[in-house]
């Protein structure tokens, strides 16, 4: 059996790392050993990583976990044993093994599935999605980055911006990720050359600007040696910006702080009917955006009924107000007919209710899209019957061009696995990104994803087996900007819908 590459070889996903002295087993910094209440109160930042093959994503994440002392003693011991089994020298630790959790991925030296990692510092808590960079796993990257507030895009300092790098930037722009950090990795292999770093940073910045990615920061790092990841490097005196972790700790996350209009999708109606609470009626859910306060006037969608908030109950006790991300049970002054799937919004807020959903989707299924297919659409906690009316455009993520499909009859799709010479698949297949029109059986709240990421996202589901066919975003996206001539017909066609039998 061949041994794993040694420290001087260039496959960073498997290069062993010589680490600093290991802290005592189970030891955590003061920031990580504080009480649970203080930990829960820390501001949360959701991250996603992406990079080309062997750019060092897993090692970078491992470095973040290790240097912030977010690795438990038993995890570290397991990684040390696995590193030794690969033939590494004593004292070396392959930090990539902290994140490459699936055996098949470790054996191939790549990341396939989306792995989530959690760590925190004194300033902030982090949820990090390690996403695959391969084109055939675009759906996995979309899944991992869909809730991200910041995307870390890695490039190899020796290779610069590649086609896959552009693909990752395009997906980040498509999903409306507010912040992008370009980590120029393996600077140790180019002798920490400033000119190399600046050339890569300028190349990426120009491309990102064309996609509409406004907040982009480039940082020169070496995940192998730890330079500028957590600690500032003495080998980059020409760089005066923040380290990678410093930026993660200070980047604004206003979209997670409840500054948008309230959106509270109702998950369940609480009616305990106990001796202690014989008349209790509450509406439980997770606040998708905004803030709710006792005394607020709220409107229930889609019914349009209104009432005042008389109480906000949580697992930790009653609150006067609660913001985005908090799970709450809201009590109202009036007994209204509210059920799962309804949404509570501020009275007077500008909202859109409709039955014609126009949005951009990433197709997640191996079964291709079929015009006229009966679907279930899930928006927030609401599930409604629907029909796929049209797939009018398809985005080529690699070239950032849009193919118009208007008028294509996708009712007669060939099987996605058909490799015969007359197989000419149209519509959307696995990993494809396109623009769809879906007719809903009943009105639902249709928030633009660009303004409300929590309630502007939706799923297309196969009603036969419950499998997810596609994940989508309501309203204009990068696809529409690249192809402004693609204009949807917003006219409702109730007769067509009724004739289809839904």
Considering the chains and any ligands shown, give keywords for the structure:
single chain, 502 residues, alpha+beta, Rossmann fold, Elongation Factor Tu (Ef-tu), domain 3, 3 domains, 7-stranded antiparallel sheet, 6-stranded mixed sheet, disordered N terminus, disordered C terminus
Walkthrough of the structure:
The protein has 502 residues and is α+β, with helices and mostly antiparallel strands. It folds into three domains: 17-256, P-loop containing nucleotide triphosphate hydrolases (Rossmann fold), CATH 3.40.50; 264-346, Translation factors (Elongation Factor Tu (Ef-tu), domain 3), CATH 2.40.30; 353-499, Elongation Factor Tu (Ef-tu), domain 3, CATH 2.40.30.10. The chain is 18% helix and 29% strand. It contains ten helices and 24 strands. The strands form five sheets. Strands 9-17-13-14-16-11-10 form a seven-stranded antiparallel β-sheet, with no helix packed on it. Strands 4-5-2-6-7-8 form a six-stranded mixed β-sheet, with helices on both faces. Strand 13 (297-301) and strand 14 form a beta hairpin. Helix 6 packs across helix 7 (194-211). The protein starts with 16 loop residues before the first strand and ends with a helix.
């Amino acid at each position: 059996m061949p041994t794993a590459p040694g420290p001087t070889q260039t496959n960073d996903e498997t290069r062993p790392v010589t680490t600093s002295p290991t802290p005592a087993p189970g030891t955590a910094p003061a920031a990580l050993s504080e009480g649970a209440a203080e930990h829960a109160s820390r501001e949360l930042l959701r991250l996603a990583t992406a990079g080309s093959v062997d750019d060092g994503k897993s090692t970078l994440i491992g470095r973040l976990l290790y240097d912030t002392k977010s690795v438990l003693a038993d995890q570290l011991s397991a990684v040390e044993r696995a590193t030794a089994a690969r033939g590494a020298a004593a004292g070396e630790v392959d930090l990539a093994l902290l994140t490459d959790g699936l055996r098949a991925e470790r054996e191939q030296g790549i990341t396939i599935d989306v792995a989530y990692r959690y760590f925190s510092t004194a300033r902030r808590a982090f949820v990090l999605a390690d996403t695959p960079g391969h084109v055939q796993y675009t759906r996995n990257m979309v899944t991992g980055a869909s809730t991200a507030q910041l995307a870390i895009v890695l490039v190899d300092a020796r290779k610069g911006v590649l086609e896959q790098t552009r693909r990752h930037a395009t997906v980040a722009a498509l999903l409306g990720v507010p912040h992008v950090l370009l980590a120029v990795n393996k600077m140790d292999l180019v002798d920490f050359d400033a000119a190399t770093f600046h050339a890569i940073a300028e190349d990426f910045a120009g491309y990102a600007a064309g996609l509409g990615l406004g907040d982009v920061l480039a940082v020169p790092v070496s995940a192998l040696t730890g330079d500028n990841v957590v600690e500032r490097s003495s080998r980059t005196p020409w760089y005066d910006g923040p380290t990678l972790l410093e930026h993660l700790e200070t980047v604004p996350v206003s979209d997670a702080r409840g500054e948008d209009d309230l959106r509270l999708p109702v998950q369940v109606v609480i009616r305990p009917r106990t001796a202690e609470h014989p008349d209790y009626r509450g509406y439980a859910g997770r606040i998708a955006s905004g803030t709710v306060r006792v005394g607020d006037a709220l409107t229930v969608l889609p019914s349009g009924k209104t009432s005042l908030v008389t109480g906000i109950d949580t697992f930790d006790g009653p609150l006067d107000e609660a913001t985005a991300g908090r799970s709450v049970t809201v009590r109202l002054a009036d007994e209204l007919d509210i059920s799962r799937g309804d949404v509570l919004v501020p009275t007077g807020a500008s909202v859109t209710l409709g039955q014609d959903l126009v949005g951009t989707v990433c197709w997640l299924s191996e079964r291709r899209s079929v015009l006229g297919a009966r679907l279930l659409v899930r928006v927030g906690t609401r599930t409604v019957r629907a029909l796929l009316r049209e797939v009018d455009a398809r985005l080529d993520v690699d070239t950032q061009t849009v193919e118009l499909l208007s008028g294509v009859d996708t009712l007669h799709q060939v099987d996605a696995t058909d490799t015969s010479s007359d197989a000419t698949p149209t519509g959307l297949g696995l990993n494809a990104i396109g623009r769809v029109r879906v007719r809903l059986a009943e009105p639902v709240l249709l928030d633009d994803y660009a303004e409300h990421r929590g309630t502007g996202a939706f799923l297309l589901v196969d009603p036969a087996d419950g499998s997810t066919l596609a994940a989508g975003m309501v309203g204009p996206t990068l696809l529409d900007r690249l192809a402004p001539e693609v204009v949807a017909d917003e006219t409702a066609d109730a007769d067509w819908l009724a004739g289809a039998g839904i």
